């Protein structure tokens, strides 16, 4: 399996770093007690006013807003995932429980203020490419399996062939590659913009996510991706 970044995207955004966690042989059913306990505690702190979610003035959120604007996306309409997640928690005092793995990604995302998401590896055909949208691309939005969207050319997307996995860099995932309780093999991405999120902080978040997932998987491997150094990272899924 491969993650690649189009040369024009790598050249334009050398400050964007990606950390990858590949988890195989997952048990993503039931509950992961540590994740559930920490999410419940976080929700209680937010409701009590002891913890504030970062807003648009937070350097990490502001950096993503600037990045989205750079290719024509309005970040107040199509918010970066960590921004949307924090706003949801701040407004309702609670986060939805999706599955243990997704809930764990959300927890790590909020702890480090960086976008974190995952895909069911067994629904990926060719691999992951971060590139500009092209004619013929199609996106099935999360929660709307009957819908078909056509990303605007120039929008930055994650794609698997012509299947768009995530629109507006990390705003919204696809329904057909989402992680569910039945997911056995998954790939997780964590993204940071340097120097706001230094590479060592991104790697710390990556290690924490891997450590949280490892007890529930037969195999967990880590990969880092620096577009200033390389445009492709490849791994061989083995349990």
Automatic annotation (TrEMBL):
Pfam families noted in UniProt: B3_4 (PF03483)
Highest taxon of the lineage: Bacteria
Domain B3/B4 tRNA-binding: residue ranges: 62-214
Gene3D superfamilies (alphabetical): Phenylalanyl-trna Synthetase, Chain B, domain 3
InterPro entries, A to Z: B3/B4_tRNA-bd, Phe-tRNA_synthase-like_B3/B4
Any GO molecular function: RNA binding
The protein's name: B3/B4 tRNA-binding domain-containing protein
